[in-house]
Amino acid sequence: MVQVREGAYDCDVLVIGGGIVGLSTAYAITRARPGTRVTVLEKEPGPARHQTGRNSGVIHSGIYYRPDSLKARYAVRGAAEMVKFCAEYGIAHAVTGKLIVATEREELPRLHALVQRGRENGIPVRELGAAQIAEYEPEVRGLAAIHVGTTGVADFVGVARQLAQASGAEIRYGAQVVRVDRRPELGVAVRTAGGEIVRGRVLVNCAGLYCDEVARLTGDEPEVRIVPFRGEYYELARPGLVRGLVYPVPDPAFPFLGVHLTRGIDGGVHVGPNAVPALAREGYGWGVVRPREVAGTLAWPGAWAMARRHWRYGAGEFRRSVSKGAFTQAVRRLLPAVEPGDLVRAAPGVRAQAVLRDGTLVDDFLIQEGARAVHVLNAPSPAATASLPIGREVARRALAVLGSL
Questions:
Q1: Among residues 275, 295, 352, 392, which one has the fewest Cβ atoms lying within 10 Å of its Cβ?
Q2: C-alpha closest to that of 202 among 366, 6, 370
Q3: C-alpha distances in Å from residue 194, one per residue of 50, 202, 373, 402
Q4: How far apart are CA 403 and CA 405, in angstroms?
Q5: 41-85: pLDDT as tens digits
Q6: d(CA 350, CA 342)
């Protein structure tokens, strides 16, 4: 039995989740209010093992996101802060800029809309004609493009490690939370899979792929469910074909950016991801199936409504997942010189996408509060870029709760 007892707290703020958002929150709490005791529980043996450590490493500019949304504000601010943080602590990073390329006529209005959105978000953008694309990327072809100079790449796992160290928080790895006892008049106690009990005054839920489950364990109904989407990557065997970052014009109806090319900090070029439903929250391959998690997804009405709404888009993603030839064709829209033999399978990732009951995919960061609890319920890309501002906002809410006790 997990039970909260008055006066028997192990910490002031108990953070569940040791990805970049959870660790940024711990860092922000101790910076804002020194002396606050923070404990972070992470089920893996080290930090940043899921979304943080399995993405393309891009520092996003914020050009895609609706003006005044949390994503727009936090990505623009977070990109500048991330570059400064990496420089201060000697973490590998580079500001490379990127191209967003229109390859079909019907994409040109969407490309122009991105120019306008970028300007509304305060992002410098250069418009390019077809001939000017080669100034940046000689092998890339398109009808028009825009160059976004503030985009870059970073070692986000290194950032997460530094946040953990600099926070001064107690970080407990291998500590999977299996039960939560939240008593509004007393505090919160959690039990881990190893039988350990940890008690705190306030709970912060940064559990990523499991954030909705942790919210329900706490006794709060999040009104969303996490539907996991696997992003599948290839590595370019001829990295010299690409100098920097090259993206297609995204479909505004779907929160994924399409197959793109990213030269990372190690000099390798990642290609992808495509996005297909995963059969487990940690479903990094078609062979990873967790029936209970699949059943949980299928029991959520929003999953069926989402499937009906986006089946055509999803069919294309599935085809690129099972057919290397189809994936190659998608890449050739941007990079005609690529051959199937140039694409070598790389480590996949899983995106924790919050879906509402009506099938709407939540397109902004989502942070909700309950009694003695703050839940981060939607923080996929660009959360790594925006992690420092997100952490400050979550810390502000947690400290406000703490101060009211």
A1: 295
A2: 370
A3: 21, 22, 23, 28
A4: 6
A5: 999 999 999 999 998 899 999 999 999 999 999 999 999 999 999
A6: 24
